[in-house]
Amino acid sequence: MKFGGSSVATAESLANVKKIVEKEDGRTIVVVSALGGITDMLLSTAQLAKEDNVGYLEQYARIVERHIEVVETIVPPERRPATESKIRMMLEQLANIYKGVTLLRDLSPRAQKIIVSYGERMSSEIVAAVIEGAVHFDSLRFIRTKKGPHSEEILDTELTNRLIEETLSSEPWTIAVCGGFLATDSEGDISNLGRGGSDYTAAIMAAALEAEILEIWTDVDGFMTADPRVIDHAYVIPRLTFTEAMELCNFGAKVIYPPTIYPVYHKNIPIKVKNTFNPEAPGTLISNENVESAKLIKGISSINDTALVTISSLCMVGVIGVNSRIFNALTGRGVSVFLVSQAASENNTTIAVRNDDADLAVETLRREFAVELADGMFNDVSVERNLATVAVVGENMKQSTGIVGKLFNTVGRNGINVIACAQGAAQTNISFVVDRKSLTKTLNVIHDSFFLSESQVLNVFVAGVGNVGGSLLRQIAKQQEKLEREKNLRINVVGIASSRKAVFNRDGLDTARFKELLHESSLDASPATIMEEVLKMNVYNSVFVDCTASAEIASLYGELLRNNVNVVTANKIAASSPYPQYIGLKNTARERDVKYLFETNVGAGLPIINTINSLINSGDKILKIEAVVSGTLNYIFDVLSADVPLSRAVEMARDAGYAEPDPRIDLSGKDVVRKIVILAREAGYVVEQGDVEKQLFVPEELFAGDAGDFIGNLRKMDAGFEQRREEAARKGEKFRFVACLDNGKVSVALRSIDSSHPFYNLEGSNNVILLTTERYKEYPMEIKGYGAGAEVTAAGVFADIISIANIR
Predict the structure, then answer these.
(1) Is 675 known to be catalytic?
(2) pTM exceeds 0.85, yes or no
(3) SS3 of 805, please?
(4) Is 562 helix (H, G, I), strand (E, B) or coil?
């Protein structure tokens, strides 16, 4: 059992360690790190001492206080004096070393190793005294290192294994406690195993003694599917293979130290990662067994400190030894390469290094290939900084065709550019490099798209909080829990804008409180501000929803789509704008592989545009469209009677919420013109608003002036319009304002409809559309239902949003 620094940081955490260890049956070895934060304090104090900064004495005093306080708080009274005596003796030795560093103004590597070793030496003595029946063993007696091929210290496995057996058999024990990280070299000098070496110590001992299991106790519940600081819905991976764990460790997962895996892997000893502060959590089990899972990917890891160095030349093609020279030169200068990408053409090789190593790598390669560069055979060595590397890990990937295609399609659809990539033939790790600014977005979209998340997330921006926008936000608030529970879909509203104010939060806004949030906000809601905030947030699976009637907001669609933001709109302006603009938006959406949806532009929540698209996509051709698509006008003509004149019917429509506050918008026919233009375009015809033949029932002169004058002027028409209504009634006919596409010609007109026509019995604000196609020629397809009202329009917008998630 290995306990990290956070597990032994305080008396309270040590009490947890005591409970965990004392519950174990059978012989147990406990390996501990230094008290949390002490290693850094030891090193920084040494640096101050080297600089003859008297502040080192103050830091040293804190080290003393920290250890003595822990001893006095947690060590049982009967063992406290002996333990405190040992700790004070080591602290005195440490003080003398610091004094020597100050006098010499020198901190040699050997002195630094000795200083840092005191962390584990003291903590292991304390833990041994805390745990009932524990016996302390000094790791310096049995963990041995030797010189490696590059003069570095490496583990002397054979000698270490023999000394572990000899030392631990020298006296009886049930619980043995020793310090991690500590080691001595062949000369008997302290050498240590490097930062993170406590995990390695535990693995070495587990392998040497053929333990049943190696438990790594830390401050997290286990390996997570991704960094929970970046992805709030990341969760613990219950099982990993050794290979998967190694890949995740090598690419930034800080749960265990990477070399830990090797000793126990060769002995097939499983590793269990557990949380000292939540011991009941099941943790993560790492073993050779690859348990079948529906999830292709086990986890995602990343390195946010990446630079790419590229050397290229047409002269590299087919030349043997170029890569050997690259890597030998870099190795000689101590540059660590963690990703290599090379095209099959062999004309360039790209390597990934840490940003701090980039200049050294470039200098090294320029020196190595100086002759070729001088002769012009090679291009200059280039470097690209401030990047991030993402690793997608899972052994199940090698059994799945198309995983790479799906991965890069998912990333690209969210506007993330892959700069370099690498995948080994083992297919357990797909690694690629992106701009550092895109890292959070990249991790989230992969986590979401490959079902590592419990739910899929759509990050939604809503512009417009009037009748439709307000209804939409209330519907989202009401439906949110059910969607997440039954469809694993989370609608995360990250931005809301009214005509005056806006509020943004990438973690999500409470849609039930949208009015309050906007009232409290001081952020201006100009189109420029909205665009800036949406692009600055740079969230994945983003959807911009336009519930306004603003031409300025509609003008944002192109830039949003170019930045891979899906657009859902109830605003008819863009889709009925000049044809090049309309088709340009659709083409941009197609090229960027995002959605541009405007189903509610015609018929509110009725599936009209989707039906037309489905017919055309399946090979049908739209020959004719007849439609009553103004719920407002249909309501007016439906309530019109001898007792309800035209002007009163218009007022009733406005009061019922069907008409705009300015009823001239509806009665001018402009809204219907826009709708038939949109339908004609979706049916495959190139049509402009100016092409629509208009036969209106309100004279043009009545639209002059302001909205307040309009109703008064309209009353002058009441008598004459009533005569027309009576004449139609005598014939058994009703008024309907009909939009029509016929053989490419478009028109809108007030028509008198007889009882045999499908439009005759249309009631209230309902819409009806007749589609005559090559397949539906004799009996046109009829779509009918509510075509106006905030609730049904909002529901249609909501349906478009949900369709982006492709759920059923």
Answers:
(1) yes
(2) no
(3) coil
(4) helix
